[in-house]
Structure formats: C-alpha cells, structure tokens
Design a protein that fits this description.
- The chain is 48% helix and 11% strand.
- The protein has 311 residues and is α/β, with parallel strands linked by helices.
- The strands form two sheets. The protein has a five-stranded parallel β-sheet, sandwiched between helices. A three-stranded antiparallel β-sheet has the order 1-3-2.
- Helix 11 links the parallel strand 7 and strand 8.
- The longest helix is centred in the middle third of the chain and has 22 residues.
- It is elongated.
- The chain starts with 29 loop residues before the first strand and ends in a 12-residue tail after the last helix.
C-alpha cells in the first residue's frame, strides 16, 4: 500500500474529490415531507433517517432540506447487499463512517450519538466503532478541509462533537476493578492532533488498563515526568504524524531511557513508515495501526504489584 494506517489509533481513508456542480445545475432541494413522500414513509421515519445519518440533510432555519442526489444515494445504499468482513465491497464500518461524517459536519450532536448507538445496535463492536467508523470519518473531514471543501469551522465543530462522544463512550465502557497497569500516551512535540491517542486511550481503558493521556504536543520532559510517576507502568505510546516531528519523538524516547528501570516505548503514526524508522527513534515497538498498538500493549508482560513495585 502506498499509504498505511495513520497515527496510533487511526485509519485513514482518503475519498476522491467530487466533481464541482454549480447551483444552476443542481435540482431544487426537497423538504423533509417531500423526501418522505418519495420514499413512501411517514415524516417521522424520514426524520429518524436524518438523525441517524442514513439520509443526508441540512437544516435551514427550522426546515430540513434534502438534496435529490442524497435521496437517490440513500435508496442505492438500502438496495445494495452488504457483504461481511471477508466478502467483497466496503468494509463493515465504512457506511457507518459516512453516516457519522454527515452528522459531524452538520454539527448535530444528537444525530452523532444516534449514529453511534445505531451502529452498535447493528453489531459494530467498540474496536470497529473507534477504528473503522469514528477515525475514518474524522480523517475524511480533515481531508475535505485540506482541499477546501469544508471550512475550518466545520472541522473544529466536528472535532468537538467527537470528543464529547468519546467522553460518553468512555464512561459507558470503563472497566471496573484493579487496572492492568498504566499506559502513558501522547503526541510527539509539535504534533497538534490528539484524537489518535484519545481513540487508543478509550480502547485500552475498555481492556482494563489505566491510561494517562497527555494529548497533543507533549514535550520530551513531560513524557518522562508522566512515566516516572505512573502506577505500574506498562508502556509509553508516542504518536508522530509528520516527519518534521520525528526528532522531537526521538528526544522523548531519549528522555524516557534516562529513567531508572526499563520502559517499553511504542511509536506509530504516518511519519513512522516502518520498523526501521521506529528503531531509529529508539523505540521498542512499532504500531502500524490502532489494532496493532492494542496487540503490542496486551502482549507486554504485566507490571509488578505490591511489594514487587520498584518504580
């Protein structure tokens, strides 16, 4: 593949840019009632389609408007058979990612949670929800902003909604009882994106680990300070998405090596193209995707307990 999965906990899927269409070329938008009539369903059914991301719509004042093309797309989506993970066609979470993306761009918090709830009700597990639904939706929004299709306000609004959603999910899936140890996570110095490590943090917590998520742009000394006080430290994960921040990541690893006792350091992200880059940074492991990051952490030996604790 020419582009591997993104930063720790992310999966990037870059959509092609749609062909431009002038307002004069586009058929007039439909009211939600007109869309419901064309679908042959009750108005409230069509409204539920909108709030769960199944039917794309925009709100103009107090009125929902539906583009005829989006109505046709929903019909095609409904009629197309959905293969399983090992079949042909789109991945299991791909159509959920598209539905979630639409609600995030619209700034629809209720609709965002409705898509998440509906996806889980349809059998999407937490791992797939994070790595194959939420992460690709945000990657697509970021790409659409980069090519000028969305305004920065759209990207920021979507980011806020995602963090709110992750907060609700974290409370729901928190695993009670003694933790399996602490994982310290953060983005390398200079990195401005905290979502990758936040996604991974949620999945690790659901597996029973305590997580100290330091977020974006973490100085090398802060990685060291957090690791030094972590209770039963398991590993430190560093996300690097841009090559110009590799030196900062290496500095963080060097700082961690100055601690007494061994520290397992894992790195991942678009800038860490392969194991050779990870070894150059001084890391112990390379997470080529969020799923691999989870596997690497779970494969590490459990930290000592009680009187055996030396850190």
């Amino acid at each position: 593949m020419s582009r591997r999965p993104g930063a720790i906990g992310t999966v990037s899927r870059w959509p092609s840019r749609p062909a431009a269409m002038t307002p004069a070329d586009r058929p007039p938008d439909l009211t939600l009632q007109e869309a419901a009539d064309r679908l042959g369903v009750h108005y409230m059914t069509a409204y539920r389609y909108v709030r769960t991301g199944r039917l794309a719509a925009t709100k103009q004042g107090a009125v929902w408007r539906v583009r005829p093309a989006d109505l046709d797309a929903m019909r095609a989506e409904t009629e197309r058979p959905r293969p399983g993970r090992h079949g042909t066609g789109e991945a299991p979470g791909e159509h959920w990612a598209k539905r979630l993306e639409a609600r995030l761009v619209a700034g629809d918090g209720v609709g965002t949670m409705a898509v998440v709830e509906t996806a889980m009700g349809a059998g999407i597990g937490l791992d797939d929800l994070y790595l194959e639904v939420i992460s690709p939706a945000m990657a697509s929004i970021g790409y659409r902003w980069a090519i000028g299709e969305l305004d920065i306000a759209d990207e920021h609004r979507a980011s806020v909604l995602v963090y709110e959603t992750l907060g609700r999910l974290a409370a729901r899936f928190a695993r009670p009882g003694r933790s399996r140890g602490t994982v310290v996570l953060g983005a390398a110095p200079g990195e401005t994106h905290a979502l990758p490590v936040t996604l991974l943090a949620g999945l690790l917590r659901a597996r029973g680990f305590a997580v100290d998520n330091l977020g974006a742009d973490v100085p090398a000394r802060s990685f060291r300070a957090a690791a030094a006080v972590a209770e039963r430290l398991v590993a430190v994960g560093i996300s690097v998405t841009r090559e110009e921040h590799l030196d900062g990541a290496r500095a963080a690893v060097v700082a961690l090596r100055a601690l007494a006792g061994p520290v397992h350091v894992l790195v991942g992200g678009n800038a860490v193209a392969d194991e050779a880059v990870a070894w150059h940074l001084g890391a112990d492991g390379w997470a080529s995707s969020g799923a691999v990051a989870l596997e690497l952490v779970e494969a590490l030996p459990p930290p000592p307990t009680g009187a055996d604790v030396t850190r």
